[in-house]
Each structure stands twice: as structure tokens, then as C-alpha cells.
Amino acid sequence: MPVLLMMIVNTGCTTQVAARLNAKDISSVSLECIQICLERENMPFTEKVFEDQESIRLFVEALNHAAQMEGVLDYGAIFLMTLEMKDGSSKQYHLNIEDTDSQRGLLVHLPDTEHGYTISEKTSEKLRKLIYESE
Predict the structure, then answer these.
(1) What are the beta bridge partners of residue 38?
(2) Is residue 18 part of a domain?
(3) What does the pLDDT look like over 71-115, one tens digit per residue?
(4) Domain carrying residue 99
């Protein structure tokens, strides 16, 4: 099911998805199936947790290199992504990665659901494989 994105207002803002992150500061990344994912006939999982450094580095790469989209988003989320930091804090995002090739992923830093960030096609493909093809 394709994700519908509607561009409503052009803002011209150039902020980053988040302050630059370091994988060494993160103890785990969890993905929870929400909204669009829950409507699927074959949900990939209810929740999936990644604790290995290689996986965490891939999520951090996506966050640190995502490019801000112009305008205000109107979208449905696939996953709620939570970064559990080693200092006990956490950060949350909506992450949209479809289980199809050649699709750019979408990141939204919560609670600001009006501004989105695109993930490169190459990193999106790596995330797709990690999320949908790994145990």
C-alpha cells in the first residue's frame, strides 16, 4: 500500500531531523507497527527491537543524513521508532519504510508531525532489508 504524502504549504525551513546522533549513545532502536502497518493483512510484526551496533548505526545514518522536505505533511505512519539512549532518555520518530524496492523512506521527528525528512534510496533499501527480511 503506497503512502500518501500531500504538500500543503511551502515553508523553506532548513532544520535537521534531530541533533546529530552517535550510535554509541543508543542502547536500542524499537519499531512498533502503527496506523498503516496495523491495517495490513499481513503485518510484518507487532514490535521489533534492534540492539546490535550494526543495525543501530544504520538507523543513525538514516537520521543524520535525512533531507528535509518542503511544505507541511499530511501522511499516515507505518512505524513508531523509539531510540533508547544509554543515559535513560528516549527519542521518538515516525518511520515509513515500505516493503518494496526503490522507495525513499520518510522520517518525522515527534512531536512535530508537520515536517518530514526523506531518507536516501540507498539507505532506505538497507533499512527495508533489515526491517522486513531479518529475523
Answers:
(1) none
(2) no
(3) 888 899 999 999 999 999 999 999 999 998 778 999 999 999 999
(4) 26-133
- CA distances 24 to 5, 32, 75, 93, 113, Å, are 33, 22, 31, 19, 27
* Dist. CA 59–CA 56, nearest whole Å: 5
- Strands 117-118, 106-109: pairing is antiparallel
SS3 of residue 38 by DSSP? helix
Supply 125's cell numbers. Answer: 533499501
83, part of any domain = yes
Q: Is residue 109 part of a domain?
A: yes
Taking the model in full, what pTM does it have? 0.84
The distance between the two most distant Cα atoms of the chain, rounded to a whole number of Å, is 40
Which amino acid would we find at residue 61? E
For a pLDDT cut of 70, what percent of the chain falls above it? 86
What does the DSSP 8-state code read for residue 23?
A: G
- pLDDT score of 11: 33
The answer to whether 9 and 73 are in contact (CB under 8 A) is no
pLDDT for 134 beyond 90: no
Residue 127 DSSP SS3: helix
If one counts the domains in the chain, the total is 1
